[in-house]
Amino acid sequence: MDDRTFRNAMGKFATGVTVITAALNGEVRGMTANAFMSVSLDPKLILISIGEKAKMNEIIKQTGKFTVNILSEEQQDLSMLFAGQLKEKQNVTFDWVGDQPVLPNSLANILCDVYNTHVAGDHTLYIGKVTDIYMKDGDPLLFFEGKYRNLASHANAG
């Protein structure tokens, strides 16, 4: 099968949208990702998948820390920015929890220390041990078939 067929099939799985953040020497990096899942309750572990060529990969390797910011439907612009879909420069304000940057107004900020890694194909799977969580109420930003969605538009489409 070709790459497009594979990508189209993976796009049939509706996901939430996250921005992974990390900082090295005070410089913050972020990248949009929907390859995120919970792994274990005891200990509390999550998993993210980062492309081998992504700058984020090297930062996480060096720092051993990352944050998963689960985006609300009002944060589509942040998703697009960190996915490289917006060409104009924008200033992003981060909150800080210790030495870890978090995106304010996200539905959840999940702070992690790297627990384990596994290289799989052209990605590194990072299992993170959750060290802290911050949450707020709201509706999620969704992604399905290559397009952003929200709960209201999905409910009205049915």
TrEMBL record:
Keywords: Oxidoreductase. InterPro entries: Flavin_Rdtase-like_dom, NADH-dep_flavin_reductase, Split_barrel_FMN-bd. PANTHER family: FLAVIN REDUCTASE, FMN REDUCTASE (NADH) RUTF. This is Flavin reductase family protein. GO terms for molecular function: oxidoreductase activity. Gene3D superfamilies: Electron Transport, Fmn-binding Protein, Chain A. Residues 10-150 form the Flavin reductase like domain. Its EC number is 1.-.-.-. Transmembrane segments: none annotated. It comes from Aeribacillus composti.
